[in-house]
């Protein structure tokens, strides 16, 4: 069988794109591995195997803000369509300890242009008014977004996207792709298992592994950075006390730690509650091969997350915990700071990759852009193709 379209990659962007493409075409396949029970079983690794990601609306620029806002609206509709609840709308607080007035003016301007509700916290006391658990330096100020901001469960979000995809007639395959063969009238998708699929068009939504195996003839500029997070286990009574805690983006820039994010305690698959904290830390690494990524995920040596633990206790002085767990993931950075979405030559091959750390909250809009570009040969109104243009290695 020759499919109209195949999407490779069952992550956040790929699953969203598959949903939209399945509304446009009759025969569509979504190919990618299920979540493995142990990391050593994996050929590829994904960062969406998690229960909590921040959902903010105002982003680092006007384009990111638009994508976040569009995705938040689409997420609400997706929950109704699939009856899968993956959002929590406790709000999102962005805190600026340095030069706060400048950054808050920027955020306020973006919010006003997009019609996003917000409140400015002019002092530490006003931030305590948002939630009394917080503690910040005396000159910090905050930018608070109410619902629909908060956090999302990426596992359940992907489940909902794929549920909608299959309802539209799409076919899901638990396979890992190792090679793309571009032939005259068809594209062959060859898997590690030996399974071969054929399609008229193929979208690569393969994240950190886009440059590996034999997926692209010309490699793209993509910086792959380790991301270390810590899951702090809390008792149920403490989780209930913190259930109104908004998601936090703390724009700190200190030696050894930058850009902290924190999410209220969430129940994970093991039935325990964990408060999630992450940041850019001095021990972060950069990868250039798939083996380096695999070795990092499988490494038994503990990460130095002391800075993350200290930050959590400084932000939440009343936090108590008996144990914590390290969690590893990968962030893909592009040179222009926006995801790559575009055609690769004239062979029917397309690309959607490079979330720059914000893929979860904007994934639905990114998937829609990729689907429209691939199937209709255009970008949606208000979206500039040049903002997402793939950059190839020289």
Automatic annotation (TrEMBL):
Keywords: FAD, Flavoprotein, Oxidoreductase. GO terms for molecular function: flavin adenine dinucleotide binding; sarcosine oxidase activity. Its cofactor is FAD. Residues 5-372 form the FAD dependent oxidoreductase domain. It comes from the Bacteria. Gene3D superfamilies: D-Amino Acid Oxidase, subunit A, domain 2, FAD/NAD(P)-binding domain. InterPro entries: FAD-dep_OxRdtase, FAD/NAD-bd_sf, MTOX. This is FAD-binding oxidoreductase.
């Amino acid at each position: 069988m020759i499919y109209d379209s195949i999407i490779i990659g069952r992550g956040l962007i790929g699953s969203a794109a598959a949903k939209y493409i399945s509304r446009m075409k009759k025969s569509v396949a979504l190919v990618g591995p299920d979540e493995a029970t142990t990391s050593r079983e994996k050929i590829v690794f994904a960062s969406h195997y998690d229960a909590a990601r921040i959902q903010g609306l105002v982003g680092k620029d006007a384009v990111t803000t638009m994508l976040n806002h569009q995705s938040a609206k689409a997420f609400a509709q997706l929950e109704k369509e699939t009856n899968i609840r993956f959002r929590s709308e406790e709000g999102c607080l962005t805190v600026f300890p340095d030069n706060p007035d400048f950054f808050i003016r920027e955020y306020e301007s973006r919010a006003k242009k997009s019609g996003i509700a917000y409140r400015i916290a002019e002092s530490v006391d006003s931030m305590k008014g948002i939630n009394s658990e917080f503690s910040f330096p005396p000159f910090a100020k905050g930018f608070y977004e109410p619902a629909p901001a908060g956090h999302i469960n990426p596992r359940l979000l992907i489940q909902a996207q794929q549920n909608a995809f299959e309802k539209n007639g799409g076919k899901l395959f638990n396979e890992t792709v190792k090679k793309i063969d571009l032939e005259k009238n068809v594209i062959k998708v060859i898997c590690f298992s030996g399974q071969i699929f054929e399609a008229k068009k193929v979208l690569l939504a393969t994240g950190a592994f886009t440059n590996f195996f034999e997926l692209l003839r010309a490699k793209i500029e993509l910086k792959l950075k380790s991301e270390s997070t810590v899951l702090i286990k809390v008792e149920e009574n403490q989780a209930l006390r913190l259930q109104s805690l908004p998601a936090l983006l703390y724009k700190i820039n200190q030696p050894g730690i930058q850009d902290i994010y924190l999410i209220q305690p969430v129940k994970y698959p093991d039935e325990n509650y964990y408060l999630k904290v992450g940041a850019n830390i001095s021990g972060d690494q950069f990868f250039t091969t798939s083996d380096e990524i695999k070795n990092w995920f499988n490494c038994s040596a503990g990460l130095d997350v002391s800075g993350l633990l200290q930050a959590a206790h400084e932000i939440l002085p009343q936090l108590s915990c008996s144990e914590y767990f390290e969690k590893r993931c990968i962030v893909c950075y592009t040179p222009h700071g926006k995801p790559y979405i575009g055609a690769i030559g004239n062979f029917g091959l397309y690309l959607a990759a490079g979330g720059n750390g914000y893929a979860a909250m904007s994934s639905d809009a990114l998937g829609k852009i990729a689907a429209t570009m691939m199937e209709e040969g255009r970008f949606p109104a208000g979206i500039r193709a040049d903002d997402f243009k793939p950059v190839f290695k020289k």
